[in-house]
Amino acid sequence: MFRQWLTLIIIVLVYIPVAIDATVLHVAAPTLSLALGTSGNALLWIIDIYSLVMAGMVLPMGALGDRIGFKRLLLLGSGLFGLASLAAALAQDAGWLIAARALLAVGAAMIVPATLAGIRVTFSEARHRNMALGIWAAVGSGGAAFGPLAGGILLEHFYWGAVFLINVPIVLMVMALTARFVPPQATHRERSLNLSHALLLVVAILLLVFGAKTVLKGHSDAGVLALTPIVGALLLGLFIRLQLAAEQPLVDLRLFTHRTILSGAIMAMTAMIALVGFELLMAQELQFVHGMTPYQAGLFMLPVMLASGFSGPLAGMLVSRLGLRIVAAGGMALSALSFYGLAMTDFSTRQWQAWSLMALLGFSAASALLASTSAIMSSAPKEKAAAAGAIETMAYELGAGLGIAIFGLLLSRSFSASIALPDGLTGSEAARASSSIGEAMQLAQTLVPSDGEMLLAAARQAFIWSHSVVLSSAGSMLILLAAGVWFSLRKANQG
Q1: Whose CA, among 87, 214, 355, 377, lies 20 to 30 Å from 299?
Q2: What DSSP character marks residue 289?
């Protein structure tokens, strides 16, 4: 029994940085923008590459764990995660940091299925296994929810690389404990990896996201605009075709023909888009516009973290009492309401109103996320439970990555259209200042003080306006999705 719970402690210890790294850079975005001189587009890639790569790689890594055993997978994933963390902490430019974050995602994609397999293998009694899974889930949701606050605390006292460097001693400790105390497992060499399919999916996702970003940024090269999303769409179509023909597919795409499962996947993506995208937007406004430190910004956002991190039990009760349909559609509708309210809230003078609306957003989005899990897992046949879980995992990670991309792109487009630039800027300076608030602040530091102050004032005013536009647009999209979910789940089990 001691070894069982020691294994759980090891699993939880390594899962904490994996969960936190999904959101830890949200409050660090302004610091990174100024420290590395990154463009707004590069900043989005630094943050969302982690979830986008992890979405495609987590499934074949699960198969790799079956082949070599979860102990070896945990050691391999932890080692890669630690090396990638060190590389990220030492990054000198945006390209280096993006590559390091992609490697971090591959390591995390190994760690997540290894931790789940470890719990499944270690705890033979259902009662103990459910307790262990509950602890694992709490660490995952809590780590992601409190990532911005953890990042703010580190940035308050150390340089930005500390948000990655702190992973290294944790990983070394986990690897030593795993090697010493975790027993080896049986392996299944016959299990297919389908690694080429996973890489195809990752490339397709990245090309589609890159295509969307170049379109919204108004890229001057028409060939890039047209070719990139087309290639991405063709690769995604090839991935779907290969999966339908494969004997052991990464994702059982036929499950998407079930309306409730499809609705659940859309809900999972939407809930993560709302939570992650909002946190990124808020972190930038609180620091760039209102002058808060990363730690102060993390504290200000605490209500959304607390509400999303601790809403699970209450949301589960609501699903049992009110039914899946009401909780799912209601969660999205309340998220839309909170977005509308936050779009009209002045954070410098109406803090309590902002905190109340953020708490509502955290609870409602997390409730929709739990409802999505219930929809997917309750509608899938028992023999396809693992495949359904894979769909949930992919939807969750894709939602996190797309939340950053969508909110970031809408913000960038609105900011560029609304900023009133002061006179006297050259053409290149004007293009740079209108690209993002981070680049406007970088430029302001190079101008004479009077011109710099005028540019800063214009950038802050444009960002506040853009913030309202993005949140209002997101609220409208959530209302439409809530209506779609309400009608799509009308035949779902209400209990």
Answers
A1: 87
A2: I
CB 256 within 8 A of CB 394: no
Query: H or E stretch including 205?
Result: helix 195-216
For residue 10, give the nearest of 133, 179, 187 by alpha carbon. 179
**Same domain? 370 vs 494:** yes
Question: Of 143-157, 212-226, 387-401, where does mean pLDDT reach its minimum?
Answer: 212-226
Distance (Å, rounded) from C-alpha 377 to C-alpha 77? 27
Would you call 217 exposed, middle or buried from its count of C-beta atoms within 10 A (0-12, 13-18, 19+)? middle
With beta carbons less than 8 A apart as the criterion, state whether 186 and 52 touch. no
Q: Under a CB-based contact definition with an 8 Å cutoff, are residues 6 and 174 in contact?
A: no
Cα gap 125→177, rounded to integer Å: 24
Cα distances (Å, whole numbers) of residue 140 to 38, 144, 196: 30, 6, 28
What span, in angstroms and rounded, lies between the C-alpha atoms of 416 and 412? 6
DSSP letter (8 states) at residue 183: P
260-274, 322-336, 374-388, 425-439: range with lowest mean pLDDT: 374-388
The C-alpha torsion from 155 through 411 and 44 to 202, rounded to 10°, is: 140
Q: What is the pTM of this model?
A: 0.78
3-state SS assignment for residue 233: helix
Q: How many domains does the chain divide into?
A: 3
Taking a C-beta distance cutoff of 8 angstroms, is the pair 489, 320 a contact?
no
In this structure, the dihedral spanned by the alpha carbons of residues 69, 70, 76 and 81, taken in order and rounded to 10 degrees, is: 160
Q: Is residue 227 located within the same domain as residue 143?
A: no
Residues 159 and 230 occupy one common structural domain:
no
Six token digits for residue 16 = 């904490």
Distance CA(167)–CA(85), nearest Å, equals: 6
Tell me which residue range forms the domain holding 232.
195-245
CA distance linking residue 21 with residue 85, whole number of Å? 10
User: Where does a domain end: 150, 173, 191?
Assistant: 191
Alpha helices for 380-448 (secondary structure H): 385-418, 427-433, 437-444
Q: What is the dihedral of CA 270, 276, 282, 284, to 10 degrees?
A: -130
CA separation (Å) from 420 to 97, 274, 451, 455, 463? 32, 29, 13, 9, 11
Q: How far apart are CA 29 and CA 279, in angstroms?
A: 11
String of b and e for 3-38 (b: at least 16 CB within 10 Å)? eeeebbebbbbbbbbbbbbbbbbbbbbbbbbbebeb
Query: Please, are residues 256 and 265 in contact by the beta-carbon 8 Å criterion?
Result: yes
pLDDT digits (tens, 9 = 90+) for 57-106: 887 887 777 778 778 888 999 999 999 999 999 888 888 999 999 999 99
In whole angstroms, what is the distance from residue 232 CA to residue 237 CA? 9
Please answer whether residues 178 and 71 qualify as being in contact, where contact means their C-beta atoms are separated by less than 8 angstroms: yes
